[in-house]
Amino acid sequence: MADKICIFAGTKDGREMAELLAGRGLDVTACAATEYGGELLEATDSLKVRTGRMEESEMAGFMKAEGFSLVIDATHPYAQIVTQNIRNAAKEAEIGYLRLLRAQEEVPGTAVYLENTEEAVKYLSETEGQILLTTGSKELAAYSMIPGFSERVWARVLPLESSLKQAEEAGLPAGRVIGMQGPFTKEMNVAMIHMTQAAYLVTKQSGKIGGFGEKTDAALECGITAVVIGRPPEEEGMSFSEMTEYLNKKFGVKVEEKIPCSIDTADEKVTEYSFEKDSAPHVVIAGIGMGTERTMTGEVKKAIADCECLIGAARMLEAAREVTDTEKPSVKAIAPEMIKAAIMEHPEYHSFCVLMSGDTGFFSGTKKLLPMLKKAKADVEVLPGLSSMSYLASKAGESYDDAKMVSMHGRSRNIAADVRDNTKVLCLVGGTDGTAELIKTLTASGLGDVTVHVGERLGYEDEKITTGKASELEGCSFDSLSAVMIVNEKAGQSLRFGFPDSAFTRGGDAEGVVPMTKSEVRAAVLSKLQPGQFDTCWDIGAGTGSVSIELALNAPYGTTYAIEKKEKALELLNENIKKFGAGNCVAVPGLAPEALVDLPAPDKVFIGGSSGNMDEIIGLILEKNHFARIVAAAVSLETIAELSDIVKKYDFDDREVVCLSVARAREIGKYNLMMGQNPIYIFTMQNKGPEISIGEGKC
To answer: Does pTM top 0.85 for this prediction?
Structure first.
């Protein structure tokens, strides 16, 4: 009786794996979530096709009933919940589990790399021009937050009724929905870019099978910006070739590809592949400086000359060829996983030189690659290179031992917070307009007086160093291959906490000034909230934004969402955000709890106004994050009573109520009398989080 294998074939490579195994005598059942996915698989005597979504319990029951000996999870990299369900179901059914991973491809230097959809929406909201979304239909509702969504966005989705319905529900006109099934060639993507007149193409980093290269190549050819959303955190699993090698050993499946692999299954542990001591290749990881011969060290040049095979990005391979007379074999690879695979795929070579830009110890892929190669027992040597940061500092006549070093190459960062806190900041910049956008951010954050040194094409013959105040350089264009040094002589002098009430713009009209949480109460509220540097914060009923802004400044690497329903207050809120340079504070128009539904889960929440919806607001907060820290202020007896009931209803692990009374001096004649203000009740509520093990201890 043939072994029975179940494949959750949610991707093209999953379907190919199912067809490959079925064609080699194994009894294969391929599961597709939709009928459309099932239609892409052709059932045969050896390949059965099952369509329809299953919950975890249904999966486990199905696996047990069919008597599978192995489950292969080939679902999409972003379907993390589905992957978790499949893994749990396989464990419950006591069946071996394998995860098929897509290989990551190189992100072009002109692309903007963002970690998630939320960051992409924020980035695109600050741009102009048409947008072509190629990320599917499920997240269209999130992109609908982009200003001018229905006039700016085109969406390419699968030609399914569900996809078209999601586009309609997001508010996208039918004329802006492109219902097509891939694969798409670069030429087809170019044609769509021209048709939509797109300035931005949004894609997930979905690998070769997902047409990632064809999309980014098309964007590069058309001179537009590719907005790349990174994959979820890296998970354990194996590539297509690695899996076929494993199945060859387990079931006798004969395939051409052969790469050593590692995998954990429920029924056995396959040892991590490692080189034999006498056959382990010598791998030199070399920092090549700025990528020119004159910025490479002598030992790096020697390593390039002595190796049998070069590995690196296209630009680095081209630079390496300039320092050797012989035409060496080379492999174009940039991701650590791809580099490791390249070494394993070429046992005919005994020495490799892996090229890393700049210095191997400064925002380098070496950090991830080195432990991977050591674990495989390769003979590894690391050679440092000349960092663009030290090179730029020397050209600018500045020391850099007291500088904060950050990277905005392929990642987002609140650079204004870094500059406020540090006298010097050295920054790697990526993207066509990366440096110009950085300078624009500085001036918009009230940092127009800082000195900026921009180094373009460092180490090349056309190298250029530009120095000036941020306000003077705003509007200038710079090469995509740039590094920046920012000098702020007033660093550390700006307040983050305890701004006087007079510092905020309050405005006024026939209805009076917009409400504002006063300084004494604001100080107490922030001390109760305890904002962390990376926290996501909500300020519900933000008014002029006094709490929102202090939250944003005290959580500089997180995002603060200021929710406000009144149009006049929103105008003042945005004015104050700009005034204080709180670029990580986002004004959200609307009434809570409806305005909170699409926001990311909060770590800290202040409720200054609930419009009578306190219970619903608290319920939604806890649904998003059961362990969020919530602080609410109450003046009226009705709100105090409502909050008292809520504390009991939700039975918070930690709860505290403080009554704050403030009196201010007022001159009456030659005397100063203390005038009492309305007492304010401050409620603090939080559930305890689970213990997290760190080493031998717990926190």
So the answer is: no
